[in-house]
Each structure stands twice: as structure tokens, then as C-alpha cells.
């Protein structure tokens, strides 16, 4: 007589990986929201910066208001993903909890994806008060389709910059990552056009470098597609290239740190 052995439901590898990503993201999110010293400044700084430097330069123009909004929204997201990753990962690497987490069945790709989800979710939370304030104090005039395009462009552009932060977090110690992130944050924002600066308005040396920066590609994506509805193929391919390069270097840093921790 033949018999069959009962088996429970078999989960696909893709389903298991997705569950691990979501579980890692939930743990990181819970840890982040219980640190008001981190969350409050991260939510307030973009709004304060916009009110000081963005809104006063609109001068009643709806086009200028839209440009300032998307630029400072990018500035807000850039700060969150770079400091959350560049500084946060470098600090986490030295903690006993991080050493324990490394023993769990989740590879670097799943952990990177979880960190990106947390940073993007936190970034969206920071954008809500910024967008509400822009609508209330400036003549921003965007239809629903434009709002959706802008949000999509913000999230797409934040991915390669988030991978840049992850790369810094694994390649440098906390002492090195903090000053380096500070050193990169404002120049990338200014030269990349997130302060609503066109290349022609920049100093000659900065203008020569600006077209090669990932933040310039992101700024162009926001302006051309987010506000204009025209998809910029060159800029989107450049962002994809930056994402691949930063991801490869992040994995190299992760593996190197793993060997150092567990050799």
C-alpha cells in the first residue's frame, strides 16, 4: 500500500524573500520611530529650510512655486536617505545587535531593500507637511496627475541616492561616514539643482561638474517629467547606472565588513 506524506504549504523563494524584507523593514521602522531625537529634526528641517529659502523666492509665480516645491522635496529626501544610511549603518555596524542580525537568514540584498523601504516611508512622512505648507503659502497649481508624477519621480530618484548612503555606511566607519555625508549633502543638493538652480546660474567650475551628478539627473527628472510630463530617457538611464554602481560598491563594503566581523 502506498501512502502519501502530508506536507504543509510550500512557500516560494520569492515569497520568503519578500517576507524577510518586510520583517526587517518593520523592525527598523519600530526602532526609528522610538528615537524622537532623530525623527523630529528629520521631519522639521526640510519644512524650516523650505520656509526660509524656498517659499520667499517664489514671488507669486506658480511655475516658480512648483519648481521650489519639487526641489526642496528632493532636498528633504536626500537628507533622509543619506543620513539614515550613511551615518545610521556605520553606527549600527559597531553594535552587538547588528552582529546578531547578521546571523539571521537574510542576505544583503534583502537588508538593503528593507532599509530603502524604511527610508522612503520616512521620507514620504517628511514630505507631507512640506507639501501642505507649499499649497498654503505659495501659488502651487498642480493637478492630480502632476502630483502623482512628482511623487513617483521623488521615490525613483531616492533609490540610487539611498544606495549611495548604504555604500558610505559600509565602506566607512562612523567617524568617517558622518563628516563625509555632511561634506556631500549640501554640495550635491546645490550643484545638482535641488535648490532650483539651473546650470547657467552656477559658478563655472560647479556648472561643469553639475551634469554628471546623480542629483542633477534627479532634478531634471522632477522638472521634465514630474512637472512637464515628458520622460527624460538620458536622465533615467543615468540614474539606473548610478544605482547599479552604488549597489555593487555597497555589496563590496558589506562583504568586507562581514569578513572583518566574523573572520
From TrEMBL:
<feature type="transmembrane region" description="Helical">
    <location>
        <begin position="65"/>
        <end position="91"/>
    </location>
</feature>
<dbReference type="Pfam" id="PF01061">
    <property type="entry name" value="ABC2_membrane"/>
</dbReference>
<feature type="transmembrane region" description="Helical">
    <location>
        <begin position="146"/>
        <end position="170"/>
    </location>
</feature>
<dbReference type="GO" id="GO:0140359">
    <property type="term" value="F:ABC-type transporter activity"/>
</dbReference>
<keyword id="KW-1133">Transmembrane helix</keyword>
<dbReference type="InterPro" id="IPR013525">
    <property type="entry name" value="ABC2_TM"/>
</dbReference>
<feature type="transmembrane region" description="Helical">
    <location>
        <begin position="236"/>
        <end position="254"/>
    </location>
</feature>
<protein>
    <submittedName>
        <fullName>ABC-2 type transport system permease protein</fullName>
    </submittedName>
</protein>
<feature type="transmembrane region" description="Helical">
    <location>
        <begin position="112"/>
        <end position="140"/>
    </location>
</feature>
<feature type="transmembrane region" description="Helical">
    <location>
        <begin position="32"/>
        <end position="53"/>
    </location>
</feature>
<dbReference type="InterPro" id="IPR051328">
    <property type="entry name" value="T7SS_ABC-Transporter"/>
</dbReference>
<keyword id="KW-0472">Membrane</keyword>
<keyword id="KW-0812">Transmembrane</keyword>
<feature type="domain" description="ABC-2 type transporter transmembrane">
    <location>
        <begin position="34"/>
        <end position="211"/>
    </location>
</feature>
<dbReference type="GO" id="GO:0016020">
    <property type="term" value="C:membrane"/>
</dbReference>
Amino acid at each position: 500500500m502506498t501512502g502519501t506524506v502530508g506536507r504543509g504549504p510550500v512557500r516560494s523563494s520569492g515569497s520568503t524573500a519578500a517576507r524577510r524584507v518586510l520583517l526587517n523593514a518593520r523592525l527598523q521602522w519600530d526602532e526609528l520611530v522610538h528615537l524622537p531625537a532623530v525623527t523630529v529634526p528629520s521631519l522639521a528641517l526640510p519644512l524650516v529650510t523650505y520656509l526660509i529659502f524656498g517659499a520667499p523666492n517664489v514671488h507669486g509665480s506658480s511655475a516658480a512655486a512648483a519648481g521650489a516645491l519639487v526641489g526642496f522635496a528632493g532636498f528633504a529626501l536626500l537628507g533622509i536617505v543619506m543620513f539614515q544610511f550613511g551615518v545610521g549603518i556605520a553606527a549600527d555596524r559597531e553594535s552587538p545587535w547588528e552582529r546578531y542580525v547578521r546571523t539571521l537568514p537574510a542576505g544583503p540584498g534583502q537588508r538593503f531593500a528593507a532599509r530603502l523601504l524604511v527610508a522612503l516611508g520616512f521620507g514620504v512622512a517628511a514630505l507631507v507637511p512640506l507639501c501642505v505648507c507649499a499649497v498654503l503659502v505659495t501659488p502651487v497649481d498642480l493637478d492630480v496627475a502632476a502630483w502623482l508624477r512628482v511623487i513617483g519621480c521623488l521615490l525613483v530618484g531616492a533609490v540610487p541616492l539611498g544606495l549611495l548612503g548604504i555604500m558610505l555606511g559600509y565602506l566607512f566607519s562612523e567617524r568617517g561616514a558622518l563628516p563625509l555625508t555632511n561634506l556631500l549633502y549640501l554640495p550635491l543638493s546645490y550643484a545638482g539643482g535641488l535648490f532650483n538652480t539651473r546650470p547657467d546660474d552656477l559658478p563655472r567650475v560647479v556648472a561643469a561638474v553639475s551634469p554628471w551628478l546623480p542629483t542633477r539627473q534627479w532634478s531634471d527628472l522632477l522638472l521634465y517629467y514630474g512637472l512637464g510630463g515628458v520622460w527624460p530617457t538620458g536622465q533615467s538611464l543615468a540614474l539606473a547606472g548610478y544605482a547599479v554602481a552604488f549597489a555593487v560598491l555597497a555589496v563590496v563594503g558589506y562583504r568586507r565588513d562581514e569578513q572583518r566581523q566574523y573572520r
